[in-house]
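User: Sequence in, structure out. Go.
Assistant: Echoing your sequence, followed by the structure tokens.
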Amino acid sequence: MSAMPSFKSLARLGLPLALLVGVSACATPFKADVSRFAVPLPAPQGQTFAVVAEDPKLAGGLEFALYADMVAAEMQQLGYNRASSPESANMLVRFDYGVDNGRERVRTDPGVGGGFADPFWGPWGRFGGFGYGRGWGYGFNDPFLGGPNVRSYTVYTSGIDVKIDRTADGQRLFEGKAEAVSRTNRLPNLVPNLVDAIFTDFPGSSGETLRITIRDDGENTVRPTR
């Protein structure tokens, strides 16, 4: 996510306390489920790589080039050198990304008469009409009837695939997938976090699926999925 404005700057704008709390809630850590399969990768010394599009339709695109640079930066941090061309690389890093069309979710919270209702959800959604991405919610809560607060919103599943092949003989060295469910379908916001997740504790244990939480301070956390 983009950097959130500071509390002091928000206060100078005269925003109410409820809005301040609501904005801070948007900064929840990004969580992704990561599955990885690998054989021992070659030592980085003298090894080169190139990032190529798994989907030929993405090859040559500016968006793909942006994400490929992110993957390349992670590989370089591991000690591998980026080749000048795929033909001269010792390894090909095949990369793909995407997001689905979304699906609706409905959540019901108790009303005033039946329990605690979310104070930041008004009749037209969070913050009175402003939502996150395209997945803003709506609901109805009558405090006099004590009815439930019903919210409907859209969630999207995004994902990336990373495969590493040795060019000399085509042997597959690594396969990894990172997926996340979020309230936005904006790939420029999602892909950097997914790349960060799949390269956290890289290459990991083959066959293991983990829930990786991406934190703003860089101290990502890793735990097995339930």
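User: And one key feature?
Assistant: Residues 62-77 form the longest helix (16 residues).
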